[in-house]
Amino acid sequence: MSPRTVTVSPLFETSRRRSHGLVVGILLVLGYFGTAAALIRDYSAAPSSVEQVA
Known about the structure:
Strand content: under 5%
Shape: rod-shaped
Number of strands: 0
Oligomer: single chain
Structural class: mainly alpha
Low-confidence stretches: none
């Protein structure tokens, strides 16, 4: 068996790069909203604990 060289078309390479960028963008957005939700949860939980102490 002779080794084959696999040629990738520029169109496929561009679409694969674009899909990787899309996945990275989605992960960044999910991370952003996850962080915001955690901060909001901590902020909304803080006054109730202060009121219980007072």
